[in-house]
């Protein structure tokens, strides 16, 4: 690993990666690679998570193409030096900010969108002119193997290299001296990454998780709310960092909303989701057992069926859930949807405030005042009004958490900025030299007093 980092450092110091044409070429090569291996990616995602072609295209491969196309279109503009204003005290100088790549970057990825979440940050790192060492998740071995195969066959390892492995490999990588670390995963591991980064004061981004609330108010368009929540929660069998973790529904509309929600889930996954070949499975046995124990049969009003052999858990709704239930203790990260009820929006705000800041929050309602109250009272990474998940697919919106749900953001221009250091430069004139800054005469002192007060 040490050798690999040194090799990449040497490559970076050739200055090749900083060139605009080089970055564009590598992004195009990456795009070609995705096209060439598209069918292999469908197969690997099916083998690891039972993802359907449609889900693989819309939530993994398609997002990568959107990101690359967006970056190819805007990179020239993003790379331009940004001029700043010159205050009166700095007459004769010019100030500007140039975005420079950090150097050798480390990207550590999770398993839930194993291809998208590994390669999306790579796009930003290349666009910003860095080299990359990428470690995919060991929990989705077919995808990890394929990512390595594709990248090994396509890129110079001194520029972009995949290192496969588990947490021990990850920790050995973290021992190396990188110039930037980009981590996606759980908050607990994020803390370890942060600790490791602090040893060399290495800058980092942490894309973490948390319990994302979804509020359904009496002002909501209930049929759309039910449809969009059903899709957002059970896509990838709830194994999505920004999936609605739980629902807070206003008492007045609860009955109607729950009926609509059940109808929408059935429409999406048919009567027997465990037999639906397009329904995603749970990643491994340990997550299956963790989720299974969260289901309290007495509270289940929909679903609840599990199939251990196939590692499948049907979309499940639990009603009358309280904050004392085990399902409310940690991020669920599976197809279980707890329902909590409220009378007044202030009660929701008060409770959510006492929890860690979530990665996402969704508010369903058409009352502008209430919408503004929610947005201005609660802190969260990002979210939607009257929708779920959709914000993360818009490359114009930075995506990231706040507090325990993450530090930093990416996607689109935010990816370029994340992987760039903003270097401030002041260029002084040699035509004259303003004397006020130098100590000496009474005149300069009196001018200085006027200028600096
Ligand atoms: P994880 O933290 O267990 O693993 C993520 C990566 O870290 C893997 O590559 C793994 O090999 C490595 N790792 C695991 N333990 C480690 C250790 N002790 N030291 C160093 N490296 C270690 O996360 P996961 O289970 O793969 O993913 C699920 C979590 O990720 C959820 O909390 C979810 O919300 C979050 N997530 C966040 C985003 C986001 O964009 N914010 C996206 C997807 C998932």
Short structural summary:
This protein has 453 residues and is α/β, with parallel strands linked by helices. It has helices spanning 2-13, 20-36, 38-49, 53-79, 116-127, 141-154, 167-175, 187-199, 222-234, 251-269, 285-294, 345-354, 368-377, 413-418, 442-451; strands spanning 82-84, 94-101, 104-108, 131-135, 160-162, 180-184, 204-207, 213-216, 246-250, 300-302, 306-307, 312-313, 316-318, 336-342, 360-364, 382-385, 406-407, 420-427. The strands form four sheets. It has a seven-stranded mixed β-sheet.
What does this molecule look like?
This protein has 453 residues and is α/β, with parallel strands linked by helices. The chain folds into two domains: 2-208 and 403-425, Aldehyde Dehydrogenase, Chain A, domain 1 (3-Layer(aba) Sandwich), CATH 3.40.605; 213-400, 3-Layer(aba) Sandwich (Aldehyde Dehydrogenase, Chain A, domain 2). 43% of the residues lie in helices and 17% in strands. The chain has helices at residues 2-13, 20-36, 38-49, 53-79, 116-127, 141-154, 167-175, 187-199, 222-234, 251-269, 285-294, 345-354, 368-377, 413-418, 442-451, and strands spanning 82-84, 94-101, 104-108, 131-135, 160-162, 180-184, 204-207, 213-216, 246-250, 300-302, 306-307, 312-313, 316-318, 336-342, 360-364, 382-385, 406-407, 420-427. Strands 10-13-14-9-8-15-16 form a seven-stranded mixed sheet. A six-stranded mixed sheet has the order 5-4-3-6-7-17, with helices on both faces. The protein has a three-stranded antiparallel sheet with strand order 1-2-18. Helix 3 crosses helix 4 (53-79) and helix 9 (222-234) packs across helix 10 (251-269). The longest helix has 27 residues, at 53-79. Nicotinamide-adenine-dinucleotide (NAD) is lined by residues 108-112, 117, 135, 137-138, 166-167, 170-171, 184-186, 189, 192, 207-209, 241, 331, 333, 359, 401, 406.
